[in-house]
Amino acid sequence: MASPENKKLIDLLWKNYPGPSDYEKMKNNVDKMRNNFVQATKNFATPPEDVTVTSVDVDGIPAEWLDAPDIESNRVLLYLHGGGYVIGSIATHRGLTAALSRAANCRVLALDYRLAPENPYPAAVEDATTAYRWLLAQGYGAGKIAISGDSAGGGLTLATLLSLKDSGDPLPAAAAPISPWTDMEGSGESMKTKVDLDPMVEPGGLMGMARLYMGDNADYRTPTASPVHGDYTTLPPLLIQVGELETLLDDATRVADRAKAAGVDVNLEVWDEMVHVWHLFAPMLPEGREAITRIGNFVKQHTA
């Protein structure tokens, strides 16, 4: 049974639910959407004082290191924030990335990859692969690197693995997608069956973001845009966490099934009564803290 804090969270999210949206409503309101997301996450975006945050230029891409005390500095988690490829930043997710540094006992490199619509697909994938190669060039071994991200960043985590595989790069040790968005077409059954249960991801708004990211001419089924269509053969171990209430539930379960069929070591966790990326609410939500701890243990196990 979920915690009392979770019920309070869900009630609060429904109270602030913005209602249905679509591409036409979104295309001229991107700046407002970004500002609203900053306001929505501000109470969870401040890292603890003992976590060091250091800005870094990653081959022209803004990024930051997050270092909890006494970490093993030869191990790195590359983190790709969520926000539908349109909103969000390393700042909005700083509370989560700081917590992951502590949980995984390693450095976290959080990446401010380029956002749509100014920089549509494949800009985000290009930036994520650039960051991974930058880590290799800095002397970090592939076996000491893991990748994680939430929502769009979870899909981008998988897209990055597929891109690196296609280009013949050495693959990271593991990856941990959180509530991943993996299907630009929104074809999962849960997009219909969970719509009245999910106070965070509304299908019309999600498809609006897909169009902002993909543009009018791109193929939505391209695996590095929609990893649900990817070839997962030879990919590293995956920990996929998703909430039971999510419209994106099937985006996670279908990827897990596809990866397992390809022989990948997959641990799929479907968390009872949890919403989209409940990890962001860890300061108030016990299940958020527990999920972060599980990711940390997974990263430690595979990058040891």
Explain what this protein looks like in three dimensions:
The radius of gyration is 17 Å and the shape is globular. The chain is an alpha/beta fold and 304 residues long. Helix 4 (94-104) packs across helix 10 (286-303). An eight-stranded mixed sheet has the order 1-2-4-3-5-6-7-8, sandwiched between helices. The chain has a single domain, classed as Rossmann fold. The longest helix is centred in the C-terminal third of the chain and has 18 residues, at 286-303. Helices cover 38% and strands 17% of the residues.
List keywords for this structure.
304 residues; eight-stranded mixed beta sheet; globular; 17% strand; alpha/beta; Rossmann fold; 38% helix; 8 strands
**Architecture (CATH level 2) name:** 3-Layer(aba) Sandwich
**What is the helix/strand order?**
HHHEEEHEHEHEHHEHEH
Could you give me the name of the CATH homologous superfamily? Answer: Alpha/Beta hydrolase fold, catalytic domain
Which outline best applies?
globular
Structural class: alpha/beta
Total DSSP E strands: 8
**Integer tally of domains:** 1
CATH topology-level name: Rossmann fold
- Specify the helix fraction band: 25-40%
Overall pLDDT metric: 98
Residue runs with pLDDT of under 50 for 5 or more positions: none
User: How many H/I helical runs?
Assistant: 10
Distance between the termini: 33 Å
Biggest β-sheet description: 8 strands, mixed
The amount of beta strand, in percent, is: 15-25%
Oligomeric state of the chains present here: single chain
